[in-house]
């Protein structure tokens, strides 16, 4: 093989191994699963001693004579053996859960931590296939089962799975996972964020058992240009998937349609129906949808709705809607740390509804799937966001591919959720040519993958023609988005709340406008003059004056103030006020409401 060819081969090998997981299995909620949640053993490995030898060569591909790679789970065979680790004598850590909240040594830890889980496995059917599914793991994850590397995943907030049919055993399986949450300049997100870098297996881990030829993926949504047409596809996975029958059943609509798969096990569906009850905020109708093939069946609860823009309006089922929103970070109001549970989702979305919201901005990365499935049930519209945050390495091709992979995994996971109406490409990114190319390419990719939702991003405002009293959006990427969203902090980072009374807005794009962030910090229980920073009165006054200012923006169609609850951030170090927390929440981290909560609640009552 020539040098050039071998280099190409090597690059393909590396790239494919970086993103080497198997095609995502849709709707894990309704599969034959075995949970691997619970107690795992863990080793903190800041020098990655379990992965590299002293010459910094990875054990990953071969055993080294000097020491044992941790993924082998080695045990001494005789007293003379040299093994310098033993998972089984280590402490337990809970999965799912970030490591920062589970061990005081790990609150600020950024590096590698090894997890190990031993388990037995009895299959219901000798012919079945087995997959290992991770709902999320932050940030770089390398997975080994019984000493064999399954693959690597990059990205902290989206699911991935590996087939383990030929590796899993009846007894004594040992699953070892290396998770490294070091921030990287070329990462997505990059080095600098205003949130806690929670590391680890932060969401569920489970085994999925499937038939040899099973329903791996499907997309079933209303055609956005014909609200009497349900469209999409079903994809089978296996060795015998061509020319197979697939049925789509929606009993409530008397739909029972049969299709024949093509050579790739794929069908395209196109179902006409005159009496579909549309999913809406007031009546979030979900239909039981069953997908059946000869060997496999899965059911899902799917809402059918259209979402589009017309001029400066957002139309849900062809009716204008104002998005009464709030921004939310994924932190558990119950146990602290990364949220992941159904209970976390219930609490956060209940508080959002008590605030009067019909819409939430899930910032700044994909939240757990409970949130969007619950939003489907509650009738809450959702903005989901890819963590292209602040100053990314715009010129780096691997960084773009990483951003596209993470966005693809988010869309794969949530494409059947009626509540999700906006895919957000980014947050507060600089208006420079390389970023405009990066985000435009990401937007084109997204539209090609899913044309049933709108595209936006949190942009930044600026002076209009150099006049600081008139603000505008001047950004080439504003021509690409469907909804023009931007963050503004007049009265907090830009003057005092009274400044809101001197500012006017000139939005020249003929698009709906969303204010994706505004807010002010307040320590719950700290009271004083409204011009005294950090008092609840300051935050309350900021909300009163900002809401009055925003009412003067002509094509404003919604807001998602920053933020529902105080959240951890290493950037916020003011003693006795922040102490490692961003205090812009309308509630404290333990759920106590601040005065501004009631200002926004009253404002939404009148909307
Ligand atoms: C920015 C950013 C948020 C951040 C907030 C703040 O707009 O988007 O992630 O937390 O401002 O400064 O509190």
Question: What does this protein look like?
Answer:
- This protein has 607 residues and is α/β, with parallel strands linked by helices.
- It has three domains: 3-210, Galactose-binding domain-like (Jelly Rolls, Sandwich), CATH 2.60.120.260; 214-308, Immunoglobulin-like; 316-606, TIM Barrel (Alpha-Beta Barrel), CATH 3.20.20.
- The protein has seven helices and 33 strands.
- The protein has helices at 3-18, 342-355, 369-378, 397-414, 433-449, 536-550, 595-606; strands spanning 32-35, 38-44, 92-95, 112-119, 129-134, 140-145, 148-154, 160-163, 173-180, 205-210, 214-223, 226-237, 245-250, 255-260, 266-272, 287-293, 297-302, 307-310, 313-316, 319-320, 323-328, 359-362, 381-385, 420-427, 454-460, 462-464, 467-472, 484-487, 504-505, 513-517, 556-559, 567-568, 581-582.
- The chain has an eight-stranded parallel beta barrel with strand order 21-22-23-24-25-28-30-31, surrounded by four helices. A six-stranded antiparallel β-sheet has the order 3-2-4-9-6-7, with no helix packed on it. It has a four-stranded antiparallel β-sheet with strand order 1-10-5-8, with no helix packed on it.
- α2 packs across α3 and α4 packs parallel to α5 (433-449).
- The longest helix has 18 residues, at 397-414.
- It starts with a helix and ends with a helix.
- Residues 194, 364, 427-428, 487, 517, 562, 582, 584 line the site of alpha-D-glucopyranuronic acid.
- The site of alpha-D-glucopyranuronic acid (GCU) has 9 residues, from loops.
């Amino acid at each position: 093989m020539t040098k050039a060819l071998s280099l190409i081969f090597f690059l393909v090998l590396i790239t494919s191994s970086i993103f080497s997981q198997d095609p995502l299995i849709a709707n894990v909620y309704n599969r034959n699963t075995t949970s691997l949640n619970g107690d795992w053993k863990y080793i903190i490995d800041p020098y990655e001693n379990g992965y590299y030898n002293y010459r910094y060569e990875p054990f990953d591909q071969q055993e080294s004579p000097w020491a044992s790679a941790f993924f082998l789970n080695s045990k001494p065979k005789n007293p003379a053996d040299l093994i310098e680790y033993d998972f089984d004598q280590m402490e337990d850590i809970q999965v799912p859960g970030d490591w920062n909240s589970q061990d005081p040594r790990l609150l600020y830890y950024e590096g590698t931590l090894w997890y190990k889980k031993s388990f037995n496995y009895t299959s219901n059917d000798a012919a079945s296939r087995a997959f290992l599914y991770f709902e999320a793991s932050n940030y770089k994850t390398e997975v080994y089962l019984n000493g064999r590397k399954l693959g690597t995943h990059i990205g902290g907030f989206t699911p991935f799975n590996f087939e383990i049919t030929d590796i899993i055993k009846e007894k004594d399986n040992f699953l070892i996972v290396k998770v490294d949450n070091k921030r990287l300049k070329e990462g997505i997100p990059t080095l600098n964020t205003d949130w806690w870098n929670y590391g680890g297996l932060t969401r569920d881990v489970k085994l999925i058992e499937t038939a040899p030829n099973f329903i791996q993926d499907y997309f079933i949504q209303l055609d956005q240009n014909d609200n009497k047409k349900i469209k999409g596809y079903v994809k089978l996975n296996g060795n015998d998937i061509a020319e197979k029958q697939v049925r789509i059943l929606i009993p409530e609509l008397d739909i029972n349609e049969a299709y024949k798969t093509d050579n790739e096990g794929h069908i395209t569906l196109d179902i006409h129906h005159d009496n579909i009850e549309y999913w809406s905020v007031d009546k979030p109708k979900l239909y039981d949808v069953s997908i059946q093939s000869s060997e496999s069946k899965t059911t899902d609860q799917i809402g059918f709705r259209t979402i589009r823009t017309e001029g400066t309006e957002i139309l849900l089922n062809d009716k204008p809607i104002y998005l009464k929103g709030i921004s939310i970070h994924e932190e558990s109001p119950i146990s602290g740390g990364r949220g992941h549970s159904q209970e976390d989702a219930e609490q956060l979305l209940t508080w959002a509804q008590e605030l009067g919201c019909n819409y939430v901005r899930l910032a700044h990365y994909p939240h757990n799937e409970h949130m969007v499935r619950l939003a489907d049930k509650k009738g809450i519209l959702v903005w989901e966001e890819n963590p292209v945050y602040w100053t990314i390495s715009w010129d780096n091709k691997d960084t773009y591919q990483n951003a596209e992979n993470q966005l693809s995994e988010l869309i794969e996971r949530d494409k059947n959720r009626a509540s999700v109406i906006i895919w957000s490409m980014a947050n507060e990114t600089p208006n420079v040519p390389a970023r405009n190319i990066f985000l435009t390419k990401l937007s084109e990719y997204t539209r090609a993958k899913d044309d049933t939702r709108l595209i936006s991003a949190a942009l930044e405002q600026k002076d209009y023609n150099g006049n600081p009293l008139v603000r505008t959006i001047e950004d080439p990427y504003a021509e690409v988005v469907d909804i023009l969203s931007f963050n503004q902090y007049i009265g907090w980072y830009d003057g005092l709340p009274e400044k809101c009374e001197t500012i006017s807005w000139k939005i020249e794009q003929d698009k709906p406008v969303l204010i994706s962030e505004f807010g002010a910090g307040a320590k719950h229980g700290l009271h004083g003059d409204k011009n005294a920073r950090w008092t609840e009165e300051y935050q309350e006054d900021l909300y009163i004056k900002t809401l009055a200012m925003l009412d003067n923006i002509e094509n404003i169609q919604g807001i998602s103030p920053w933020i529902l609850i105080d959240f951890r951030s290493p950037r916020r170090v003011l003693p006795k006020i922040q102490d490692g927390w961003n205090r812009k929440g309308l509630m404290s981290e333990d759920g106590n409401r601040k005065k501004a909560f009631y200002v926004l609640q009253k404002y939404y009552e009148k909307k």
